[in-house]
Amino acid sequence: MKTILITGSTDGIGKLAAIKLAKDGHTVYIHGRSSEKVSNVISEIKEVSGNINIDGFVADFSDLEAVKKMASEVKERLVKLDVLINNAGVFKSKINQNAYGDIRMVVNYFAPYILTNELLPILEDAETSRVINLSSAAQAPVNIEVVKGAEVLNVNSAYAQSKLALTMWTFDLANRVKNTTAIAVNPGSLLNTRMVQEAFGQHWSSADKGATILYDLAVASIYEKETGKYFDNDKGDPKGTFGVAHIDAYDKVKIEELIKTTNKVLNI
Length: 268
Hints:
single chain, two-stranded antiparallel ribbon, 10 strands, 46% helix
């Protein structure tokens, strides 16, 4: 049985994936912004799965200091981590900018970047571990000035750039770590989740489609060595296949510039 942490898992595909994994008997840690909601979802998952090994963490991913604090708490409570699913994300928000930059770049890219790098020691302590990063079909060339917080974009552009940044970093991570499989995944476009409904008011596929691929990528043996790849769940039926991300995700010069700028912005 594996120890699994899923960010942004108090609703949507993160929560559904947590339930699927809990039913298999894995130790599952969920994450959310509200302590009350995290507590309620922990109780719900325990009840529906019959698995008592469910716990959680609370952090607002728009606050990078809170992300660092959560990472410290995870390392204090967990000896090892087999799977990290960076599922937390934002599209529409009441606040478009904060002290760190565009809210989408902060939550969708900076937060998982910090969390994962902080947790690498316990990921690498696992025999074989996996990092699953939630990308998107929406990917756009990353403007370094946006990463620096020096330029403001519209919602769609900022979201697409944050998702390509996440994908580019996933590929970089795969090249740097030895025993950890790193995969970027588009879980499916316009899934029936709260975030999609708030943004578009419609959906194309069920949320379960996205939850199922997160479940598979987390624990299925066939994905154990598939590192540094992009899984496109819009391809194929009922399940997708590995596909081709935006061309910039394979550009070593652009990736190097992105990582260098990210580390400078985050003082790493």
